[in-house]
Automatic annotation (TrEMBL):
Disulfide linkage: C60-C94
Catalytic activity: a hydroperoxide + [thioredoxin]-dithiol = an alcohol + [thioredoxin]-disulfide + H2O
Name of encoding gene: tpx
Pfam families, sorted: Redoxin (PF08534)
The keyword Disulfide bond is assigned to this record: yes
The species this protein was found in: Trueperella bialowiezensis
Protein name according to UniProt: Thiol peroxidase
One MF term in the entry's GO annotations: thioredoxin peroxidase activity
EC code: 1.11.1.24
Active site: C60
Stated family: Belongs to the peroxiredoxin family. Tpx subfamily.
Lineage of source species: Bacteria, Bacillati, Actinomycetota, Actinomycetes, Actinomycetales
Function noted in UniProt: Thiol-specific peroxidase that catalyzes the reduction of hydrogen peroxide and organic hydroperoxides to water and alcohols, respectively. Plays a role in cell protection against oxidative stress by detoxifying peroxides.
More about this protein: The active site is a conserved redox-active cysteine residue, the peroxidatic cysteine (C(P)), which makes the nucleophilic attack on the peroxide substrate. The peroxide oxidizes the C(P)-SH to cysteine sulfenic acid (C(P)-SOH), which then reacts with another cysteine residue, the resolving cysteine (C(R)), to form a disulfide bridge. The disulfide is subsequently reduced by an appropriate electron donor to complete the catalytic cycle. In this atypical 2-Cys peroxiredoxin, C(R) is present in the same subunit to form an intramolecular disulfide.
């Protein structure tokens, strides 16, 4: 269980992010065409999981824009945007924003939230995913994690980029 805040008020998550140095749990998410997105689909590539509560918030939307740029600039790397938003919302957002370098993955019918320890257990966003970043190397090992301490803050993009160097 991690303790984070929402507007400065402490809240917890159910579980913890996978530990650096461990094998990342495989997952099955749903893409914007209702197909499966699995970690195993990206074997040999580094995977950045940009995990957030909802595309319908400014900070979440900004993180997808920032990681879209990162995906364009860093070789052998795939960015997967993960939330509980329905696949249709992911498609609408990416089309409207011109997002082309990010794979979207809805966790609406997945064990991803439990497997990655990112479900908020209390507060106004109970049940949604906590803002987090997990980076997995080409062999499936977790090489970086960030549990963003304040839900209304952006991830540390520079640290994520450094982990990919």
């Amino acid at each position: 269980m991690a303790t984070i805040t929402f507007n400065g008020t402490p809240i917890t998550t159910i579980g913890d992010l996978p530990a650096v140095g461990t094998k990342a749990p495989d997952f099955t998410l749903t893409d914007s065409e209702l197909g499966d997105v699995k970690l195993s689909d990206f074997a040999g590539k580094r995977v950045v999981l940009n995990i957030f509560p909802s595309l319908d918030t400014g900070i979440c939307a900004q993180s997808v824009r920032q990681f879209n740029k990162l995906a364009e600039e860093v070789d052998n790397t795939v960015v997967v945007a993960v939330s509980l938003d329905l696949p249709f919302a992911h498609e609408r957002f990416c089309t409207a924003e011109g997002i082309k370098n990010v794979v979207t993955g809805s966790a609406f019918r997945s064990s991803f939230p439990e497997d990655y320890g990112v479900t908020m257990a209390e507060g106004p966003l109970t049940g949604l995913l906590s803002r987090s970043v997990v980076i997995i190397d080409g062999d499936g090992t977790v090489i970086y994690t960030e549990q963003v301490p304040e839900t209304k803050s952006e991830p540390d993009y520079d640290a994520a980029r450094a982990a990919l160097s």
